[in-house]
Amino acid sequence: MSEDQTPAASPEPGGPGSGAPERDGPERGAPERGVPEPAEIRFFGTTWVHHDGGYGLRRAGVAVGSLALAAAGAVVLRFAFQGLEIAAVGPFVGILVVAGFAICSALAFRRTWDGFVRRPAPAARSAPDTSSQGLMLIGFIGSLLAYFCRSLVEAPGEKLRRAEYTAARERYERRRGARTGNPAAKKSRPKKRR
């Protein structure tokens, strides 16, 4: 290979020549170390904390979008059901399909709604979650309707995240309040002699 054909070495991310500013010390405006940060919510980021940054528009968008997707899903399921009618599989199979989708949608609604209200226990996440992914896929209309209903009240999952964030802030404030003064400053002060 000649020198003209050798590929240029790409700069490492954050390294010199990458276009990113070099950082020698802590960033200006960076949060204090150990201060809890609010968790991001899908479609909302951290706008749920102070209800700023287009929070109301985002809630309206999530409500309209999830309802529109649920309606589109219902239309697709209707076409699938018409396909079963054309195939003349019989009324029993039709009833079974409708009941299966209804039950899966109800279970998906409940599971999605519970995810907005409380965190599942870590032990409960492994096996049941992987086995219920098919159920959630079949009942996607229920999940979308849960998003729609919850976004009428708040950002989906906001109540749970707000409780977690408030508890983390309180723990941080207690830890911070427990530290009285700067220990380094206490050592440097000369002792008074009597």
Structural topology:
Blueprint: H1 55-86, H2 91-117, H3 127-131, H4 133-138, H5 140-153, H6 158-178, H7 183-188
Q: β content, as a range?
A: under 5%
Any low-confidence stretches, pLDDT <50, length ≥5?
Answer: 1-30
Distance between the termini: 84 Å
Radius of gyration: 27 Å
Structure description:
By secondary structure, this protein is an all-alpha fold. Helix content is 57%, strand content 0%. It has seven helices and no strands. Helix 1 runs antiparallel to helix 5 and helix 2 packs parallel to helix 5.
Supply the key terms:
mainly alpha, disordered N terminus, 7 helices, 194 residues, single chain
Summarize the structure.
This protein has 194 residues and is mainly alpha-helical.
